[in-house]
Amino acid sequence: MKLYTQPNTNLYHAALIGDIELAKKSIAQGADPNYQELNRTVLQAAIICNQVEVAEFLLNNGADSNKKFPNGLTPLMEAKSAAMVKLLAEKGADFNVFDAERNNALQHYVVWNCLDAAREWLGLGWPVIKKNKKLVDRLLAKGRFEMITLLTGFEFKAENTMGRIVEFKMKFA
Q1: Residues 137, 142, 144: CA angle, nearest 5 degrees
Q2: Per-residue pLDDT tens over the stretch 67-115
Q3: What are phi and psi of 91, to 5 degrees?
Q4: How many other CB atoms are found less than 10 A from the CB of residue 4?
Q5: Residue 160 belongs to what H/E stretch?
Q6: Are 167 and 140 in contact (CB under 8 A)?
Q7: What phi, psi does 164 have (nearest 5°)?
Q8: pLDDT in tens, 128-145
Q9: What does the DSSP assignment read for 80-102?
């Protein structure tokens, strides 16, 4: 692997590929855990690549669990796995933050169809999305029935007919 002369660049590279030893070496050489390269923070790179061990190391060494990234999202909004959501919760991530379009992290998991991240969010007792017919319709159109069940408690009674669900009922009616 090519090493760069700048510890910050090495730290960013370590976050992308999950190289914990390189991350430790870079921090020891003075790298900034909140360093930004290519319009992404080091923590964001680790989260997007689901490098949980490196993300934990960064958070333990001063990376901000609530800092908005240049794209306006928080670390929690970028998480795609249950392990990453759990780590960020343990490190004090604020679940009550919204992006520019008033979406919280759970809404991002719904859009990206990250069921494990959504389950972890709900398991931690964080807020559920308000009943939103438009969102449910979008999920229906994309065939994301398991996500709808997770969020609403609805279960599907009938098979779909020509691409449409003909009936669904309350799960615990």
Answers
A1: 85
A2: 888 778 999 999 999 999 999 999 999 988 888 888 889 888 988 889 9
A3: -95, 10
A4: 12
A5: strand 160-161
A6: no
A7: -130, 140
A8: 666 566 777 777 777 787
A9: -SHHHHHHHHHTT--TT---TTS
